[in-house]
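G., the chain you wanted modeled:
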Amino acid sequence: MKYVLVRRHGRRHHARMIATHALPLAKLAEHLRDDEVHVWRLNYQPQRQRAPLRKVLAAYLGVDGDQVMLTHGEYGRPALADTHDQTLGFNWSHSGGHALIAVGRGVAPGIDVERLRTRPRALEIAARYFSSDEAAALAALPASARPIAFLELWTAKEAVLKALGRGLAFGLDRLTVGRSVGRLTLQRLEGDDANAWQLQRLPVDATLVAAVAWRGGTRQIRLGTLASDT
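Predicted structure as tokens:
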């Protein structure tokens, strides 16, 4: 299993590419630092269910994949069973044939990915479910720019809600995300301090839109692609 690594500085409003490497999953997992979040991209096959997720987590836990036991939080967020290292946080998301897995120590990351495609009802959905500021910003864009803008907002909101441990039932209008070229900012989160959060769009490829979020200090993001046999 090999991957291409993109190392990025995790400042609140800025990310910068540092270097590209190729290393085995187990090698990097062994050296997960407390100031990092590792994000893995892999092919998603529904019939394999959570086997790839368990295999990735196993590398960080130092056990075999079939020994990884998962449970669920109150709102359905997957978590490691109490028998495992509780300092290791993770989250995953899939869309079509693609999946992303985020892993960090001492942090509960949230991640979301969506395939880029036309959304004929984007303005209608935003007006109904997004904050008024987000809906207005989306409506002000040229029609050609709305698909990616809508998905940037959607994946950012999903990532934050998943990091929060809540689902869509929490309410997409209870948080506001600002977006500019290449950047996302959590501007408001009802019941919490938005400035305590990190939110970053992930440069996966031109066909996907993805974001990762966590509550806590800045961290470096390492983005890698796992081999198809993972």
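Residues 114-212 form a domain with the Ribosomal Protein L22; Chain A fold (CATH 3.90.470.20).

Shout if anything looks off.
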